Amino acid sequence: MSNAASENHESPVQYTAGGKVMLACRDLTRIYREGPQDVTVLDGLALEVRAGERVAIVGSSGSGKTTLLNLLGGLDRPTSGEVIIAGESLLDLGEAALGRFRNRHIGFVYQFHHLLAEFTALENAALPLIVRGQRKRVAEERARELLTKVGIAQRADHKPGELSGGERQRVAIARALVTDPSLVLMDEPTGNLDQGTAASILALMDELARTTECAFVIVTHDPSLAAHQDRVMRLDSGRLAEQS
């Protein structure tokens, strides 16, 4: 176990002058093998995101933004370095424990939704709570509340194939938020939404950031979405730098 990880177990949540650190990356490196060569996508990257903070990640295509999201969410393991969420180093978790940790602490909004085709919008949104062991009725009550907040409650009983791209995206956002996560990771969350719906999603993110400790990391090519966040970081040559 690394010294950093040990420190986190002694003090489960870190504090800085700006408040509680919900996400921390230290020396995060990801190297892929392509034929005979190693390709370094992330190179000693460092990032801290405080509770209630919204951070946008921008960068050119192929700069490693999706790789970074996968590492932050525990969907991939770094070549070196570590990711710490809510005081827990992901390096310390085996696959089963990591799955449970993701379910409790991390919400995902993928660019292409990843909804289950055979389930209704309501069932898709409630699924993380049901996987956790929550009673179906209670899980669906919470899911319906989130579907209402994202403006799609009237389509709760429809399956993904009966929904537009924007409607599916709203279901995915409700699913990400249903567990009251510590961290929400978003990949182009408003890319399939009209301007009015995108504005309502931004307002919901603002509300959650203000009223809960949930932190947001948002990968986007949309300058207006990035500018709406508390900070904008640019990913370039495997490193993150603050964008003014």
Polypeptide structure, described:
With 244 residues, this protein is α/β, with parallel strands linked by helices. It has helices at residues 3-10, 65-72, 95-105, 121-132, 136-149, 165-177, 195-211, 223-227, and strands at residues 14-16, 19-34, 37-50, 54-58, 80-85, 88-89, 106-109, 183-187, 215-219, 231-236, 239-242. Strand 5 and strand 6 form a beta hairpin. The longest helix is centred in the last third of the chain and has 17 residues, at 195-211. Mean pLDDT is 84; it is low at 1-18.
Structural class: alpha/beta
How much helicity do the residues have?
A: 25-40%
Structural Rg: 18 Å
Number of helices: 8
Per DSSP E runs of 2 or more residues, the count of β-strands stands at 11
| Main β-sheet description | 6 strands, mixed
Apparent shape: globular
What distance separates the N and C termini? 37 Å
Poorly predicted spans: 1-18
Strand content: 25-35%
SSE arrangement, N to C: HEEEEHEEHEHHHEHEHEE
Adjacency order of strands in the biggest sheet: 7-8-9-4-10-11
Q: Mean pLDDT across all residues, rounded?
A: 84
